[in-house]
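Supplementary Note 2. Why include the ligand at all?

Several targets in our set were suspected to adopt different conformations when bound, so apo predictions alone were not considered sufficient. For every target with a known small-molecule partner we therefore ran a joint prediction. The input for adenosine-5'-diphosphate is given below.
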Amino acid sequence: MSFNASSNRLRIVIAASEAVPFSKTGGLADVAGALVKSLGQLGHDVVLIIPDYFPMRRSANGIPPVDETGIQVTIRMKDRPVTATVNWSAIPGTEARVLLVRQPEYFDRRQPYGDGNGGFQDNCERFCFFSRVVPEICRQMVLRPDIIHCNDWQTGLIPALLNSQYAGTSGFARTATVMTIHNMAYQGRFWHFDMPLTGMPWRYFNHHQMESWNELNLLKTGLAFADQITTVSPTYAEEICTPDGGYGLDPVLRDRHADLTGILNGIDDVAWNPETDPLLPTGYTLDTRRAGKSRCKAHLQHRMQLPCFDEVPVIGMVSRMVDQKGFDLVMESAERLLNRNVQMVFLGTGDPYYEQMVRNLANRFPEQVAAQIGFDESLAHQIEAGADLFLMPSRFEPCGLNQMYSLRYGTVPVVRKVGGLADSVVHYDGQLASLETANGFVFTDYSVAAFAETVERALETLENETVWDRLIRNGMTRDWSWTGSAGHYLDVYRRALERVSDRRFEGRV
Ligand code: ADP
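The joint prediction is reproduced in token form.
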């Protein structure tokens, strides 16, 4: 079955390098898992294809059963055949199927992309393989997709394959591709001698298609070939078209501006629901949030071995510890902020340099600062619920999920005005009029002064119960679910399909 305008039921294949609940290093996994669910609930026929990081899956909780399909796919990687087996599973609560690509040599690892020493040496090979497997699975399983929705550089090769070796072949004649950029800073750049791993002829290694600054660039490849491009917030869609935000690919995006849409991510409002969240010591609603949050705060202070005082504001941060997230601003203002009677709680992992800085801060101020270095889903939820303020002073932030979790959990975010933070957090400027919509605090300059002043203003506002309540109410009552975003993706899919039918008359690339 292909796109049928009367039933409007689309066959959608989503290809991603990670997806909740099977694997997760960041927002991409949340988005992939939640989008599949929402599109499935809207009645579309959705298949999610992801690599099977077997050791990660085996040690994770709440993974649905995984069974063998009996299907094997063999791809010639340079001069050797490499075979994957395809397992399948389901996303609980939907009919959406999940296909897991099991290839032990490439994917039986505890981390999807790299370890403490940086990215894995064979990342180009691993994800070229994954990208080449996706259309082969579609072919062998006769999925006949209307849409293949690719995410980030790890799947950037797929649109190129669809436009070259699969063009016009049975099962793909009407397949459109959509490429979503979750983070422009990660492009999948490899030396040109990796080109044979892509299975694409060398003639595609040119500045308009797969090459950028003499390197193979897999994100650029996706951007050049996909029928439509999306990114994860309207503001980020504008930012990536500028030299500052485009990381060298802004000319490509400016060329394709008409095909570029920014769609703010939603959140998984079942997993992130303060009323029913099983990871919290107690659930709460807007009406019961005072008692609920105060219990969550006491629990958090206890867990993090901080003095348990309800009246001391807790400032939380859950984040990958990398340059992007503004840890330098936080570290440089920490002493100034800790002069006040506040506590700070950090959860994160990433760059050893920032990990150590955060550890040092906790060692110097054991009564006021607590840090956990690592990945911990339950603590992430407990910080969102137990903190009063949540920090996201990012240099850039394509969408950001944590500020939306904070808003839903009645925790007021302090964010920098970039990307999805600018699209979801409305600044309280101290004026009555702004209380209509304000739900947090926003600063613009990437400077210690601007950040610290904004946190201080937030702490002062916290003392005004009426205003604080209003900020929390504005955040907690807005719909942050996927329903709206999934509708926008469907609009993009339809535009992509129109482009394919036009192209059938004009010929492929
Ligand atoms: P990014 O994708 O850039 O890392 P997002 O805000 O879009 O940032 O998404 C981050 C996601 O990862 C959120 O769901 C956040 O709660 C989660 N997360 C990040 N670090 C940790 C951690 N150390 N432990 C648990 N969850 C984390």
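The chain is about 35% helix and 20% strand. Residues 26-27, 30, 318-320, 347-349, 375-377, 380, 399-402 surround adenosine-5'-diphosphate (CB under 6 Å). Comparable summaries for the other entries are listed in the accompanying table.
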